[in-house]
């Protein structure tokens, strides 16, 4: 009988502007998906402004495979709820009638390949379905984002 795989761990980097509700939503959500998150707050790197809200560094292939096994049919919905939901949590400010500013994305980074996946708050479920099937080995060092027009990651 083989030993169970070691638990997945993720390094989660938040910008200083990330609301506490967003932090809690993401770390609680990752824990619920079988990942142990270790978090830190980062300010600008080398005096450059950060263009993302949250960066999650983990063995991404293992994470996506684990999510698929744990949740089976509901994996895509759960990923959308955890990753996209973390970007939508409010800072306790009242809603503004005008179009709200688009939140910076959440980035998933694979520890092995260095591939980065840009997660926007309003990705369709189809994007998460494709995400579970991505071959990260062929994406080494690349940053992938979802092309809504073509309906695929590029």
Shape: globular
Structural class determined from secondary elements:
alpha/beta
- Sheet having the most strands: 6 strands, mixed
Number of strands: 8
Explain what the structure shows.
This protein is of the alpha/beta class and 154 residues long. The chain has one domain (8-92, 103-153). It is 30% helix and 23% strand. The protein is built from four helices and eight strands. It has helices spanning 20-32, 60-71, 75-88, 125-131; strands spanning 8-15, 35-42, 54-58, 106-110, 116-119, 143-144, 146-147, 152-153. The strands form two sheets. Strands 2-1-3-4-5-6 form a six-stranded mixed β-sheet. Strands 7-8 form a two-stranded antiparallel ribbon. Helix 1 (20-32) links the parallel strand 1 (8-15) and strand 2 (35-42). Helix 1 (20-32) runs antiparallel to helix 3 and helix 3 packs across helix 4 (125-131). The longest helix has 14 residues, at 75-88. It is globular and about 45 Å long. The N and C termini lie far apart (40 Å).
Write the layout of secondary structure elements.
Layout lengths: L7 E8 L4 H13 L2 E8 L11 E5 L1 H12 L3 H14 L17 E5 L5 E4 L5 H7 L11 E2 L1 E2 L4 E2 L1
Parallel strand pairs: 1-2, 3-4, 5-6
Antiparallel strand pairs: 1-3, 4-5, 7-8
Helix pairs in contact: 1-3, 2-3, 3-4
